Amino acid sequence: DGARGAALLNALLLEEGISSSIQQLDYLPADGSKGGLILLSHVVAWEETQGRRLLNFVQSGGTLAFDATCGRKTPDAKPHRPWPGSIARELGLEASGLESNPEGYEVSILGTSVGKWLLTRMTPGFAPDAGWRPWEELRFIDDSSPCVWERSYGKGRVVFINGLLGPSLVHEPKSYPIARYLLHRLGAKLADE
Predict the structure, then answer these.
(1) 20 to 30 A from 171, CA-CA: which of 7, 11, 79, 193?
(2) In this predicted model, what pLDDT tens digit does every residue of 28-61 receive, in sequence order?
(3) Extended beta strands in 146-193, E state
(4) CB 182, CB 15: distance < 8 Å
(5) CA distances from 128 to 4, 35, 71, 94, 151 (A)
């Protein structure tokens, strides 16, 4: 799911006119001073040094977007506490668990159903002083809670996507409109930088 989902996201980014490639975490840029986007989907495990590298990228001006299953574990499968690993406290976002629904999660834009994400979402906790703001228009239909949250960090910004982005593209055709909307909005903000 991870590799195929990444490939589908890469193709959609290219369709949006956003230059992109698939890289290992160790080869991602640490300098975001020229802007740019790192999009992580279903990257379940990373080392503490890789998490710090992501934060450096954002702090210097880049955009980091990641989904609900990112950073839960170390590469040897030990759970990160708090999670997402090595970035949670710094960003003021800590997961208290994953919520699962075998039927998936229906998503709406401005109240109109636009598709579905697979299986799981995070139960997030946001530090009150961290500055997280929801994307108001994109919400889960079942409880009207926001699907995407954003905050500034240093000179850059962080976008948390509370669903399975890449794996949903692989297994749920109804997820394409949501992904296209997300990537279009991320791309529009990159163009403004």
Answers:
(1) 79
(2) 999 999 989 999 998 888 888 899 999 999 999 9
(3) 148-153, 156-161
(4) no
(5) 36, 27, 22, 12, 12
Instruction: Provide the β-strand partners of residue 40.
Output: 66
Side chain identity, residue 18: I
Strand partners, 90: none
Q: How sure is the predictor about 193, in pLDDT bands with cuts at 50, 70 and 90? A: low
Q: Is the pTM of this model over 0.70?
A: yes
- Tokens encoding 132: 């997280």
Question: What separation in angstroms does the CA of 95 have from each of 2, 123, 153, 158, 175?
Answer: 21, 6, 19, 16, 23
Residue 47, SS3 per DSSP: coil
For the chain, the helix, strand and coil percentages under 3-state DSSP, each to the nearest 5 = 30, 30, 40
* Tokens 């949250």 sit on residue: 149
What would the two tokens of residue 127 be? 């530090």
> Could you give the CA distance from residue 27 to residue 117 in angstroms, rounded to a whole number?
29
Cα–Cα dist 54/42, whole Å? 15
Work out the angle at residue 129's Cα, subtended by the Cα atoms of residues 38 and 123, and round it to the nearest 5 degrees.
60
DSSP 40: E
